[in-house]
Amino acid sequence: MSMLSTASVVLLIGWMTLMLRACVAEYRYYRAVAIHEPEVWVKLGAPNHWLAPFLFLVTPGRKRLLDSVDNPLVLALKRRYTLAGRIFLAYVVVLLLSSTAFFEWA
Q: Does the reported pTM lie above 0.90?
């Protein structure tokens, strides 16, 4: 196995790990809103399991609803969800920039 393919596997495993971490954080945040803030969940449309991610898309009305949450557990999970998403996006951006630079100068 060449060094390039080993590096590709390591980068792919890193990507999958960060993606899984972001997905788990997002799911835990959804469940916390549904369990601890049922009135907000109902105002969002009380989605079933498969439609939940689409109801959390940012719109002014939904943002106001989610910002009105005051449960400390839900707020902590929101911070964790936001952080996990930002770390994943930063990893993807750094990976794209570094691979572009690598293939341009290689």
A: no
